[in-house]
Amino acid sequence: MSAVSVHALTKSYGPLKAVNGIDLEIAVGEVVAILGPNGAGKTTTVEMIEGFRRPDSGTISVLGHDPSDRPAELLDRIGIVLQEGGIEEDLTVREAIEAQRRPYAEPMSADEAIETVDLVEKADERIKGLSGGQRRRLDLALGIVGNPDLLFLDEPTTGFDPAARRRSWEAIRQLASSGTTVVLTTHYLEEAQQLADRVVVMSMGEIVANGSPDDLGERRSGLSTIRFRIDPSRAGALGVEPDAGGWVVTETHDPIRLINELTGKALATGIAIEDFEVGKITLEEAYLRLVTHDG
Amino acid sequence: MGSGSLLVSETMLQTKLFFRSAVAAFFTLVMPLMFLVMINFFIPSDEASGFSAAQYFTPAIAVFGMVTATFTNLAINTSMARDGGILKRVAGTPLPMWVHLGGRIMSAALVGLISVTLMLAVGWLLFDLEIPWSRMPLFALLILVGAGTFSALGLAVAAVTPNARAAPAIANFVILPLAFISGIFFPLDGSPEWLQTLASWLPLEPLVTAAIALFDPAMPVEFPWAAIGKVLAWGAIGLVIALRFFSFEPAGTKPRAAEVSAAYGD
């Protein structure tokens, strides 16, 4: 069964088609990252799935419910971590979590939520004294304390330092491994790669790619990048065009043949090839190609 | 957990928050008390005409204390909670929005009752206020009706306030002139008749006049039907406006400015 099932979804704001007919299935237990530049329609899409916005047309089913009606049985089973979700900052961490867990049918204990996000030492401090990263981990605790089957995370680690980001990733992985379905939006390719089973890329209101992070866009086609450095004055002999620093970057679907040709010529002519690297194009490169539009 | 016990815990939570905010506690509890003390010091009683400053101003300013606790606080705090994303977070949980807002209202009313009690106690201790115990149930009823109405009006102001920064200005712009023409800071006897008529159709003056009458031993005890009717009618108007215009999201979030400019920009 699908945790989330979206069909032919559209939403316009005046003349702007924010979401232009998308289909999306998210299986129970999956971790899905929705990527896209600002204005791609990812927040609008997620907010329709969360039930905060009503679609213009199309259907959404979340755990078997229509989220637009915001049924209590559905709200009891989902957790939402908003980017701009507010909290009364005069409360302590524990008080806020206790208040949040109260309306759920089967919440986890406040202590468990606090431990999961690694805020034990801050549990009895006022929220207004927390750092940005601690505050965001509290948001995560508020999202999970109801023991959701489905968790929405809107840019969960934006603005974190690397150590704080890893701590949050650890907490999210822990939830995912216990079977929670996770839908997250992010600007960080690394975050998607670290956490997600599947990446959905949106651009201009449409889904332009949908697959595993290893398989996204041109990464699927086996496109490789070869990078190396040579003496620019001798580039002609190899038939390549280096930049001013002598760097050559080329892409190919047949890296073995190209490497063989290049190294063969280099050895035959005595040209030194330095800093030779070959690899799949990066997730970032594949992503940028998907969302960058010419003109 | 049932809605009833959730309402109680929301009320307790909001009350705890109120007392943790020094600014709110000062403006709500201390300021009306200061008015009471100053006015009783500056405006003398007139034994010849039977005018007792304490008997007049204590109930009047007690009503003002209740109005501050409900109307002003709810208008400011609810719009702040909306702009800060608190209401949106709540909307994503199984806690019904009416329970959350109900908790805010109950807490405001509770603070209002504390304010009223404090005012009567200070009037009695410092200014020889005579408390007509047999009339106190009626006085409590008046205060509760006022708390309900001014809570609804406070939420209505929050609903139509474009952003939280404007809320204190709008709330005070409404309530301070209203207090002046409703006989809270001075008796209305000398003011123009049209002003008295206007005030009598607004939600505060009927409440103030009825409350003062209850504290005046020379006045007969009457159930203040007309006052309660007018005040409740204003409460209904406030409720309709609040329900019609209330949003748990800040104004202008649909769509996000960044999304529109990004979509049109490049």
Give an account of the 3D structure.
The complex is a heterodimer of chains A (295) and B (266). The model of chain A has no long low-confidence stretch (mean pLDDT 88). In chain A, the strands form 3 sheets. In chain A, strands 5-6-7-3-8-9 form a 6-stranded mixed β-sheet, with helices on both faces. Chain A is elongated and about 75 Å long. Chain A has helices at residues 42-50, 72-75, 93-101, 110-116, 132-144, 162-177, 189-195, 235-238, 255-269, 283-291, and strands spanning 2-13, 16-27, 31-35, 57-62, 78-81, 150-154, 181-185, 198-203, 206-211, 224-229, 247-252, 274-280. Chain A has 10 helices and 12 strands. Chain B is mostly helical and 266 residues long. Chain B contains 11 helices and no strands. Chain B is globular and about 65 Å long. Mean pLDDT of chain B is 89; it is low at 255-266. The chains are: A alpha/beta (295), B mainly alpha (266). At the A-B interface, helix 1 and helix 3 of A face helix 1, helix 4 and helix 11 of B.
Q: List SSEs of chain A in N-to-C order.
A: EEEHEHEHHHEHEHEEEHEHEH
Q: Please report which band the strand proportion of chain B falls in: under 5%, 5-15%, 15-25%, 25-35%, 35-45% or over 45%.
A: under 5%
Ranges of chain A with pLDDT <50 over ≥5 residues?
A: none
Fraction of residues in H or I helices of chain A:
25-40%
